[in-house]
Amino acid sequence: MKVAVGIDVGGSTTKAVALKGKDILGVSEMPSSDPLATSIGLLGKLVVMMGYSLQDVEVIALAGGRSSQLPDSILGLRVVKVNEIKAAGTGGVVLTNLDEALVVSMGTGTALIEVRNGGKNIRHVGGTGVGGGTLIGLSRKMLGVSSVSVLVEMAERGDSKRVDLTVGDIVGDGIGMLSADMTASNLGRVGDTSSIEDLAAGITNLVGEVISSVTYLAASKLGLEDRVILVGRIAKLPPVLKSIQKTLASFGVKPIVPKLPEYAVAVGAGYMVSIGEG
Description:
single chain
């Protein structure tokens, strides 16, 4: 079996993975500049890393927002363009070896993808405009910080409870299915003296809780509460992931975070094309 290379051509970062079937042979990423130059660079890097040649690559599978800008052949290799939703859903179940799941693809925004029958049936069931773009937008405007890594470092030094209002703050105790320490109003306690670290924690908590809420509603509707998979780079951001895990745990849901969650789209695209489903 020859190698399939899946490439997720994103707006800020392009990620690539080499696969044989479901076996991941290598991964790499680099900042997105010119989509073609970046894709060629990643292809060459993977081939060198694996000790292979271009002749060992059967096909390049492209997905992501900027994949439409690329040609149908790169360095003489066949290129197949794959729907990003289907790629993310497939990547989620390939990375976890599940036959069905609700895949939560967290990028600039967040997409909720129902996957059934080992990826044969994939349906986009909803999502939210809250995601990585929200993190950066709020951080840039409120904190003057445009770097996700800096935002995360600040959030880990802060405490969202000093800028959020809890259910207990408002009603004195828990209410309904919500315990007293659950958030009633994100950033509802922000004042003139709130620290930038606490604001950073509040921003990451807001994003995590919004994603969690829409995820739970979809999972419960679909009967997939025990098979929620988190993919995308946000799954690698500790304060956001902690917020998601805590909120979902309050609803009895324990999400699955696979290894290499940020490569789910590239993995899904490469796998789909390798089995003739691109």
